[in-house]
Amino acid sequence: MKNASYREQVEITGSVYQINIERSTFKMKTDSGLRVTAPYTEETKHRVMSVIQDPQNFLIQVSGLGEFAHSGALERIVKADSIIVARWERGEVAPNAPTITEMFDAIIAETPPEAWEGVPTDLSHRHDFYIYGVDTTED
After folding, report:
1. Phi and psi for 61 in degrees, rounded to 5?
2. Cα separation of 57 and 59, whole Å?
3. Residue 91's CB: how many other CB atoms inside 10 A?
4. Contacts of 89 (CB under 8 A, 6+ apart)
5. Which pTM does this prediction carry?
6. Which is higher by pLDDT, 114 or 96?
């Protein structure tokens, strides 16, 4: 007879090292080397993306329903009830750390309006000019 797995509430913290957009899942790795797959939703997708973009500074903390092997090893997270971005600082997790998006929003809010006047608004049409210095627009 095959040993059955079981499900139990779990909380795990680690770094994101792979995202599967088609399946809306990501793979994370803990400090102990445990690798686990977990699902994300459209609402939590930006959190997962922000962690994979800056793995040196951010971790992800997932709370939810985990599936365990008969041996007691966590195999995967079946349902993520909570996904939190955490800042990695000297081995400690700060659960209230801002996400990358929140940091950008803060920088934008602190920038005076006159600074935005110098930002080109036609980049999509003249990207060759701004990137390569070549003007490809027709007169």
Report:
1. -115, 120
2. 7
3. 6
4. none
5. 0.60
6. 114
